[in-house]
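Protocol step 6 of 9: fold each sequence in the batch and record its structure tokens directly after the sequence line. For illustration, a two-sequence batch is reproduced in full.

Sequence one:
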Amino acid sequence: MLDFVYYPVSAVLRLWHTAFAAVLGPADAAAWILAVVFLVATFRAVLFLPFLRQARNQAAMKRLQPEVRAIQRKFDGDKRRQSVEIRKLHTAHGVGLFVGCLPALGQGLVFLGLFHVLRSFDRTRTVGHLPFRTTSAPMTPEQNALTPNYFLDASDVRSFLQAKIFGAPLSATLTGTPTVAVLGVAATLMVIAAVATHITARASIARQDRTARQVPFMNTVMLWVFPAAAVLGGAVLPIAILLYWVSNNAWTLGQQHIVYRRLDTEAAVLEQRAAEKRRAAAPKPGAKPVRRRSPGRG
């Protein structure tokens, strides 16, 4: 259904695994761990410019809040006129209402693609390739070991199924009868992912305009519900997906720090230019105000 996502994800995963396996050896689990981490880096690097545009868009909307409130006061009681004028204001300053959709959509597709590809390494269970689908005819272990996984060949499938991190298979989940190793690795990754999600949300909320109308419910969801989902969802996700989740959150934290510092620098430059224009337009001390002659006077 989403082959246009699954094939690129599997291709990038195979590319990185091949590169690291050439150094570490094809049987080394670290090659698969690093392949997942660098797959995150690859796709997040592709989405960096859209994220930067989204952050600049949000910063512009924050700067325009005083003018938005002035429009709301001027056309109080006329919601239609308010919407028209605010839309004109946003258009004049290059603000787009749907700019933030692309990074979120891209990350969502990558997550679904990676989830599908990693789950497709083990097709011996009744759980199907998609998160919400089951199959009544799973493969036998022998069939699974001889069946390629999109751009990953059968040898890659066998290598992944044998890969372990601290004794826990990368394909293992907490469902069923997990070993102590699986429990320890999965629980650690779940907690790290939850903490990173909370810190990321806190940093994002700190950038909000305190004078603008906010939705406290959404902030609560970001701060607490999403981290809780990382813990609850981790119970049914393969360890390889949890590695992706942690890597993705770590990238987000670093990216936010870099982008927000850059935006703060740009805002300081804009404020300095605006102050210089105000000083240039202000009358010099002791100068007499220039009066325009009325039309018709000689």
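Sequence two, same batch, same settings:
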Amino acid sequence: MTEMPVVTEVARAKINLALHVTGRRDDGYHLLDSLVTFCESGDRLDITASDEDRFSVSGPFADVLGAPADNLVLKARDGLRQRLAAAGIITGPVAIHLEKNLPVASGIGGGSADAAAALHGLLRAWKTDLEPRTSNALLLSLGADVPMCFAGTPLAARGIGENITPLPQMPAMALVLANPLIGVSTPAIFKALERRDNPPVGALPASADLADWIDCLKNLRNDMEPAATRLVPEIAAARAMLDAEGALLSRMSGSGATCFGIFGSFEKAKAAAEALRRQRPDWYFCATNTMSA
């Protein structure tokens, strides 16, 4: 470990292209049917060998994170170390630095993406792996979004998020992310839902043609968006701004408040983001591409 180079992972922003709430379990967890993709943009984690465990944070949104003890990166580190120790694998101390580039509590993965990236990086740093059943249990113990963030490729997520199906036919997309920098409480949004028995997503395009996917997505929705917009009206304003800049489709991601607009090219997305920053310099805008399978 003392000779270990820096291990770097990108915690990519998670985008819910569609999110249907289809039911609720007896334990209170909501059942979802969601189409998910991931952006090139995200937080960054650097992991190095150290004389003792350390954790530090920088970046534009570092100051709005909660207490370090509550950070999912540390819970991921400790959970992974515990499971490896149970398998007789010794792990050395590490210094983890998180560069927080994504808004907090914004519906694009955030802490879940950071936790997933930490697990990937630590497995590389410690040069080991987990048995699939143990790995799946660890991922779900960290949160319902962590399994899909760990997968990190276009997918359909069902159940509470743990039932994952890869979608290799989903094309890469040019996006603009827009967030009014107002945190949204996911439990508050679920509590405000008017219906929890909505129909599932249904059939998806068999091709990677962007036009086919836009047509499909237009017939889908985010069932959390109406409740979120009632609590944060700026969500509707963000979507209207994206539409006015020529988005082929706009929608809220996750429980908000981040919205995304799909554009025909990265050049168009970049120009739109620059125009939106001039309109609202106090908001967050980011032009990015999504990952292909």
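Proceed to step 7 once all outputs are recorded. Observation for sequence two: The domain at 7-166 is CATH 3.30.230.10 (Ribosomal Protein S5; domain 2).
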